[in-house]
Specification:
Blueprint: E1 2-8, E2 16-22, E3 25-32, E4 35-40, E5 54-56, E6 59-61, E7 68-70, E8 76-78, E9 87-93, E10 96-101
């Protein structure tokens, strides 16, 4: 496992997301009321960016076909998506958001 430094906590306002590229990955970093979560940015159904999606509570709606995922678990909430999105163990340290990745 390696730690990847993604961004500062101040870079993402609560209720928003940021698209980040690090370690060969393209990720969506979400700030849910000061708690941070990281998923793959690419929707599992099409070319939509989850960081550019609509966030409602713990759910992100893809901006491409409007499929929905649980931000915390990656599980599908609403079709047309059928495959969960990958999530990452997120660490907040010294005002930075990091993940552990393979």
């Amino acid at each position: 496992m390696q730690r990847l430094d993604l961004c500062g906590t101040a870079d993402i306002a609560p209720g928003n997301a940021l698209r980040v590229e690090a370690g060969g990955l393209t990720l969506a970093v979400f700030n849910l009321d000061g708690e941070f979560f990281v998923t793959d940015d690419l929707c599992t159904h099409g070319p939509g960016s989850l960081a550019e999606g609509y966030i409602d509570g713990d759910v992100v709606e893809c901006n491409f076909h409007n499929g929905q995922f649980d931000i915390k678990t990656g599980e599908v909430v609403s079709p047309p998506c059928m495959v969960p999105v990958k999530t990452y163990k997120t660490i907040v340290e010294n005002g930075r958001v990091l993940i552990e990745a393979d």
